[in-house]
Automatic annotation (TrEMBL):
Membrane association type: Multi-pass membrane protein
Highest rank taxon of the organism: Bacteria
Localisation: Membrane
Organism: Parabacteroides chartae
GO biological process, one term: cytochrome complex assembly
An example Gene Ontology CC term for this record: plasma membrane
TM region positions: 12-32, 44-65, 77-99, 209-227, 512-530, 542-564, 576-592, 599-618, 638-665, 686-706, 721-739, 746-770, 782-801
Location (main, coarse): membrane
ResB-like domain span: 69-194
Keywords assigned by UniProt, alphabetized: Cytochrome c-type biogenesis, Membrane, Transmembrane, Transmembrane helix
Domain called Cytochrome c assembly protein: residue spans: 570-774
Keyword Transmembrane helix: yes
Transmembrane is among the record's keywords: yes
Name of the protein in its database record: Cytochrome c-type biogenesis protein CcsB
Length: 812
């Protein structure tokens, strides 16, 4: 029995089984939380005795395996330190769970308290603090002219040990006091009170942070020490490439093709309207005017018009008109544009139900012959439902209602906030159709009349083609803006950069470069495997240099967006996709010297990611950051964790390519294909190691950020839970080689393909299927992509079965 018992704990099979159960339990918990609440998930999974037992078994299993394999004697310090770090982290979490306290303190202005409410999974109790907090003032700062919070802070008097001191608490600025940490969590609706979250966990935090330091050291060592798995793979890859240079005689050419749908001929109504086109020169001047967006950000009209046209028409042009020409034409000829079918409708059922033109409908179609709004009853019914109860029809109806409202406001002179009110404490700007009674004297007269004057001159210019007068009035508006903007400084240089960013469409052209160059690289990479010609090598190098140029251009676009927004450009779904594409191509560049095929796949995949980011359900708008994201941790945490997605994407593509090649693993080409599969499999595993290292570091950097923002380093939020699941799943893929039956190329490559589903769930699925504190950049319109994911899953399963039958005995 003793042998059997010890054999169970020092078995690699036990390791994999425990990790699979652990990942499965975490995944189950996120769905329990969605349907039954956070407390139920914590009681049933996260804080259950069985879950604690599972984590204890994982610790025992590692210790037993380390002793069995003699890691200490073999001086495999990287593996020892990394796994020791996880043990320390788990121990720190246990200490936090047993002895830590989490609670809240609620204080009204002018009041004081020394009591905090401590929350547990069972109940709430009240503890007395060894000091008193008095709220002097709660300050809520909004973005100019917007209701969106920019920051909020609590000004406190702290009475402790017979002394009084002044303190300020705001997001990412913590008050440490006698082992207690206070964080700005929320505030009262009347903005006269504050809610502070409190955490007391000195021992647990110190132990956990020590584990994080060990983890960072261990993971870095795993990539650089000579006897690490990663460096051994690197040496084997170099040897394999050198030995295979003269053996290549045959390889199947793999083709990737991209198709695009031809645009249909423009609607006759649009063709008629665009005959009254505003001159490009004047439209550019109009587009350069500053305007205040609904979220308070100062943007050029060009950005505003682009966003409006994308929301209405799902395009950045309509016919031959650019967005500025469209907006000015709409303002000058609203009666005509109301009859133009420009409002995009993707739901044919919705169009049929309300008797609207399918595909694109006119604003006037939304009203019946009596002028009643057709959508009113349906919209009210959709809003009366809980968000999770709304059908696809309801969601599309609400989106159509938003489009109609945008059109209605534009026709009535609203939304285009061109006019600042001098000395307004909130720096609010107004549109000509707003209530302008807040203005007085000459300002009132100018603001109430100048837009009608300007539109009149535009109408005249459309007939005469003389834009002199319109230019003069436009200049008056610009002069008024500069004179009356007050303390809100208009950064014309930044506005000009934003116009440049809009017109250059960096990521659109980078996408095209990546797709074309990646496709050509893929073809020539395969050709060079069975034909060695100097001109082919020169062609490959030239293509690689062009990819590098496109990569630099990609970086330029990200840098320009960073400058315009004022923060690292990976705060929402669109920006993150652009960054993932960049990280994917970077991963290909790093492996390019070892494998031109990997370089080609990475470039092509970067183009595909940028293609996905350009789809209609991705919003490219630059938005102000919510308060919690105003932290240097945003740049560090997201940059590292999303870079991991790039390497996982490379592994996914290599794995998929190898599964295809394995289907030709018989007959004459078998030798060459096996050589290629072996070479690519080594690159695949190296990419997995880098990805897992970055993902692990990024996940626990996020835990540090959470501790500095919310007072706990791990709260089992669905996003962070799925990040941990992704770490565990990729760790399973890389540890499967310890099992003899899985020590083959098929298992590694199939694992790298299947594991990518966890990345997709972490990046997309959590925002769509679940909810939580990380829903800053979520999209509600990504349901269409799941159809493609299901198709890909079915293809992968069939491909995996077929390749296993053909290639299952090949080991590397």
């Amino acid at each position: 029995m003793k042998v059997s018992f010890s054999g169970f704990f020092n078995s690699a099979v036990t390791t994999i089984v425990l990790m699979v159960i652990y990942a499965g339990g975490l995944a189950l918990a996120t769905f329990i939380e969605k349907y039954h609440g956070t407390l139920a998930a914590k009681a049933m999974i996260y804080y259950s005795p069985l879950f604690f037992l599972l984590q204890f078994l994982l610790v025992v299993n590692f210790i037993a395996l380390a002793i069995k394999k003699g890691l200490y004697k073999k001086k495999k310090w990287a593996g020892l330190i990394t796994h020791l770090a996880f043990i320390v982290i788990l121990f720190g979490a246990l200490v936090s769970h047993l002895f830590g306290e989490e609670g809240i303190v609620h204080i009204r202005e002018g009041e004081s308290t020394n009591v905090m409410a401590v929350r547990t999974t069972q109940s709430t109790s009240f503890h007395t603090l060894p000091f008193t907090l008095e709220l002097v003032k709660f300050n809520l700062h909004r973005y100019p002219g917007s209701s969106s919070p920019s920051s909020y802070e609590s000004e406190l008097l702290v009475h402790v040990d017979g002394k009084t001191r002044h303190e300020r608490i705001y997001m990412n600025n913590v008050l440490d006091l006698k082992g207690y940490r206070f964080f700005q969590a929320s505030f009262d609706a009347d903005e006269q009170g504050t809610v502070l979250s409190v955490n007391r966990d000195v021992a647990g935090r110190n132990i956990t942070y020590t584990g994080y330091i060990f983890l960072l050291i261990g993971l870095v060592l795993s990539l650089v020490t000579r006897n690490s798995r990663f460096m051994k793979l690197n040496r084997r890859l170099r040897e394999l490439i050198d030995s295979n240079k003269k053996e290549l005689t045959f390889l199947v050419l793999l083709c990737f093709s991209l198709t695009t749908n031809a645009q249909s001929k423009e609607n006759p109504m649009i063709e008629a309207v665009q005959k009254f086109a505003v001159s490009t020169e004047h439209a550019d001047k109009f587009g350069a005017l500053p305007v205040q967006s609904s979220n308070g950000r100062m943007i050029p009209v060009n950005t505003f018009s682009s966003e409006i046209l994308r929301k209405l028409h799902k395009s950045d042009k309509i016919g031959s008109l650019n967005s500025d020409q469209f907006l000015l034409s709409l303002l000058a000829m609203p009666d005509m544009w109301m009859r133009v079918p420009l409002i995009a409708i993707s739901n044919s059922e919705l169009a049929g139900f309300y008797n609207l033109t399918e595909g694109q409908s006119a604003y006037i179609e939304m009203f019946d012959s009596n002028g009643n709004y057709k959508l009113q009853e349906g919209v009210e019914g959709a809003y009366n439902k809980m968000p999770n109860e709304r059908s696809r029809f309801d969601k599309d109806l609400l989106k159509l209602d938003e489009q109609v409202n945008i059109m209605h406001q534009l026709i009535n002179g609203q939304m285009l906030n061109l006019f600042p009110k001098e000395d307004d404490p909130n720096h609010t700007w107004y549109a000509s159709g707003d209530d302008l009674s807040v203005f007085a004297g000459k300002d009132s007269m100018f603001v109430s009349r100048v837009m009608d004057w300007y539109i009149s001159e535009v109408q005249t210019a459309l007939k005469s083609a003389d834009w002199t007068k319109a230019n003069e009035v436009l200049g008056m508006i610009a002069t008024y803006q500069d004179a009356k903007s007050g303390t809100l400084i208009i950064d014309h240089e930044k506005l000009a950069s934003e116009i440049k960013y809009n017109k250059q469409q960096v990521f659109r052209f980078t996408k095209i470069f990546y797709l074309i160059l990646g496709g050509l690289l893929l073809v020539f990479s395969f050709v060079t495997l069975f034909k060695q010609r100097k001109w082919l090598q020169y062609t490959l190098k030239s293509l690689m240099l062009l990819v590098l140029a496109a990569f630099v251009y990609h970086m330029y676009g990200m840098g320009l967006r960073w400058y315009i927004g004022g923060y690292a450009p990976w705060s929402n779904s669109y920006e993150t996709m652009v960054y993932v594409a960049w990280a994917t191509v970077l991963a290909g560049i790093l492996f390019g010297r070892r494998s031109s095929l990997t370089f080609a796949l990475a470039t092509l995949f970067g183009g595909i990611i940028l293609f996905v980011s350009s789809l209609n359900w991705m919003d490219p708008e630059i938005n102000p950051l919510v308060p919690v994201l105003k932290s240097p941790w945003l740049m560090i945490h997201v940059a590292v964790i999303v870079a991991a997605y790039g390497f996982f994407g490379i592994s996914f593509l290599i794995g998929l390519t190898n599964l295809v090649l394995m289907n030709f693993g018989k007959g004459k080409p078998a030798k060459v294909i096996k050589a290629r599969v072996g070479e690519l499999s080594l690159v695949n595993e190296m990419s997995l190691w880098i990805g897992l290292t970055l993902m692990t570091i990024g996940t626990f950097l996020g835990a540090v950020w959470a501790n500095e923002s919310w007072g706990r380093y791990w709260g089992w939020d669905p996003k962070e839970t799925w990040a941990l699941i992704t770490v565990v799943i990729y760790a399973i893929v890389l540890h499967m080689r310890m099992i003899k039956a899985c020590k083959n190329a098929w298992a590694l490559n199939m694992g790298s393909v299947i594991a990518f589903a966890s990345v997709m769930m972490t990046f997309f699925g959590v925002n769509y299927l679940l909810s939580g504190m990380h829903s800053y950049g979520q999209n509600d319109n990504i349901h269409g992509i799941f159809i493609y994911l299901y198709i890909i899953l079915a293809v992968v399963v069939l491909l995996g079965i077929r390749s296993y039958i053909c290639f299952r005995k090949y080991r590397f």
